[in-house]
Amino acid sequence: MHPHDAQSALDDINRLQGRTRDEIVHHYFALPYVLLSALIFFITYASFDFPRPWHDITMVVGLGLWAATAILQRRRSSVRRKSPISDLELVFYIGWGLAFAGLFFAFRLGAEAVGLPFHNTIGAAAAAAVWVLAIPPSRRILTVIMNRNRGS
Known about the structure:
Blueprint: H1 3-28, H2 31-46, H3 52-75, H4 87-114, H5 119-133, H6 135-148
Helix pairs in contact: 1-6, 2-3, 2-5, 4-5
């Protein structure tokens, strides 16, 4: 094997790994999963406006749907990861969750301050809308994170 052949093979491997990472990010942020997750987020957080037994039931159903969606998304992926997520990727996912929980509470407090009824539902709807709008920049951020950690 000539050095040029070896370099060409390495270039092909790197190109295919980049395509694999792009496919992983694309699958994570596929429109059906994004919309379903935003809907589940809305249902789960809007349930705070329900009376006590219905709130608990809706919360359990919402969390169950979220888990089922995550499992379905993982099983339907065309690309399987061979390595665990990086620390920076974990920080991204935790930050995503905390950011939207914080957005919900901020919108909720804003609706309550204005005196609107069903402030939890309004906060959940506004945060779910931002959830969908935040997908393009989040996709770019996750792509940069995954390209930085070339171990996946």
